[in-house]
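Subject: sequence -> structure tokens, single chain

Hey, anyone have a minute? Need the predicted structure for the following. Not urgent.
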Amino acid sequence: MAATIYGIKNCDTMKKARAWLDQHGVAYEFHDYKAAGIDRERLGGWIKQLGWEVLLNRAGTTFRALPDAEKQDLDGPKALALMLAQPSMIKRPVLEDGDRLIVGFKPEIYAAEFSK
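Reply:
Had a minute. Here:
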């Protein structure tokens, strides 16, 4: 079964991650969650496995542009709703390979994970 990499097509980090996968012969499917969205069940599963704090991209322009009231008192349900409404708030890439989830891209982490 091929891995699935989730993100946004034009994101520089996504481009680097996809190039790494291509160069290392890792089969994957690409899911652009800005174009295709992300379903509540999948995102909820990621949150359950990793925590919403890992997935919510607080450094991105989309999150920073939110009114202060929406940024306050963040918890799992509120973060889930924000990420569903605006998937560009999800850190990227999210690489799903079976039970394994990797958030973000660092070549050394991909190398370690795909050498197993």
